[in-house]
Design a protein that fits this description.
The chain has 394 residues and is an alpha/beta fold. It has 13 helices and 15 strands. It binds adenosine monophosphate.
Amino acid sequence: MNKKTIEDIDVAGKKVIVRVDFNVPLDANGKITDDKRIVGALPTIKYLVDKGAKTILVSHLGRPKDGFEDKFSMKPTAVRLGELLGKNVIMAKDVIGEDAKAKAAALQSGEVLMLENVRFHKEETKNNPDFAKELASMAEIFVNDAFGTAHRAHASTAGLADYLPAVCGFLIKKEIEIMGKALANPARPFVAILGGAKVSDKIAVIENLIDKVDTLIIGGGMAYTFLKAKGYNIGTSICEEDKVELAKNLMEKAAAKGVSLLLPSDNAVAKEFNNDSEKQIVASNAMPDGWMGMDIGPVTIEKYASAIKDAKTVIWNGPMGVFEFANFATGTKEVAKALAESGAISIVGGGDSAAAVEQLGFADKITHISTGGGASLEYLEGKILPGIDVLMNK
Ligand code: AMP
């Protein structure tokens, strides 16, 4: 890991602006329904408090248009953070206004200030340099700990680094240490499991991983574009016609590199796209007309579980079927279970696969569940994330 972390800089008595990801879900009454993201930022915040820094937190929440909107206020997150820390968190009335600046200037060592929603300013997502400079003027050090927005070059995720020494917090440190090692120097066999609806969303990931993995497992809706490329009838399964050729090329590339590319050998198929549809299990080379693939079948589950069992590193992104429908969630559940039971270094990308692992209670058996869906996908594509790129090198 060649980027400086919060442990590589002296924060005592310094004003430290920390980009956190407090984009938490709220119910209709503005109550937080899941505080996981706030809990995730605690190690960095506690470290700063313990070291006597003056901590200024900045985050976005939801998608406000432009200007203050009460329903997107950071207030509930400041209250929850205060409860978790066991100390008062000061709430600013604005982001770079008089109130925020006065409260930042008055901060004492060990105190924590939460700024208002940074996206109340449209300059944030435009990475406007004047806005970044105003934000930076309140602090002496920039800590980025919001992996979920690290793939965005916004003022608070990247722009701040033009004006302040920039390091990462513990959350980003963990993300890049674990995923970085898996990509650069994985314990082998290295298996990647990719699922989800579309091939087009995962092309760049497949292309990057095909050079690195020993086995590439394909499931979910995207598998049917591959099965079509093999010349199979896929009934009414989801398929991207314009990606069939690409799927063929990817299979050839995998074969040429000696990468074992696994596709479903059987499937749970349905007549209609709903949970209560008539259902049957069919082999991939015997898919009947008028039926669609909704989940991987039992033979495939066994095949995939066995590859996972033998692996030393596994990366998983995307469900194996339409897991939102209980009758078609078996493949996704069984893959999650196999991953939890394997002794491998296991990494789950954000989004649906992370939710599946958490709902099933396997989260504590997974080495790392990424805190960013889009960001972790871009990381797996081999892209340089702007919010990490701007950090100081060691
Ligand atoms: P993604 O966001 O690309 O990871 O895709 C997740 C979505 O893919 C989920 O909403 C799943 O319901 C959907 N999906 C998975 N398998 C299938 C399938 N066989 N047919 C249609 N949609 C699927």
